[in-house]
Amino acid sequence: MPTRRSASGYDLTPLDGETIHRLAARLSPEERQIVLHQGTEPPFCGNLLDNKRRGSYLCRLCGLPLFRSSAKFNSGTGWPSFYEPFDAEHIVELVDRSHGMVRTELRCARCDGHLGHVFPDGPRPTGLRYCINSASVEFTEEDPAPNRVHRPDAEPAS
Fold it and tell me: Which of 46, 53, 48, 57 is nearest to 113 (CA)?
């Protein structure tokens, strides 16, 4: 399969089931439930909710950059919230009709891991609120460089 790259230069080639299974083995049971089975962590309990450090938020499963700290804001909802993604191509939006609602679910474009949902009640400039499970992302103070190719076989950021 040819490599597919985002506008910011990251490899978006979908991961095969074996690679996803191997990467998921390092997740906690709660992280696996959220990332692989579209779970949701309880509000106000995620370890990244109050994180105010500068850096980037990466997919917990495959390491793809998803959000920058500069786009993070306090929404008061109990989950880390962002008004724009690192690169729009890094996130896939799906219609979610679960729980008697119609919402827009967010998934990682490379590994299909569940991230959270997006709502049209965020701040300027986008008016969007990307409501993300802390269990779905990991934080790094290192800002991913443009055109850097991250493959999930490398050690994850901590």
Answer: 57
Question: Does any domain span residue 46?
Answer: yes
Domain count within the chain: 1
pLDDT band at 147 (very low <50, low <70, confident <90, very high): very low
Q: What share of the chain is helix, strand, coil (3-state, %, to 5)?
A: 20, 25, 55
Tens-place pLDDT, residues 4-30: 899 998 999 999 999 999 999 999 999
Domain span at 97: 17-140
Residue 98 identity: S
Please check whether residue 94 lies inside any domain of the structure.
yes
Task: Give the span between the Cα atoms of 67 and 78, in whole angstroms.
Answer: 17
Mean pLDDT over the full length of the chain: 90
Report yes or no: 53 and 138 within 8 Å, Cβ to Cβ: no
Residues labelled as active-site residues: 131
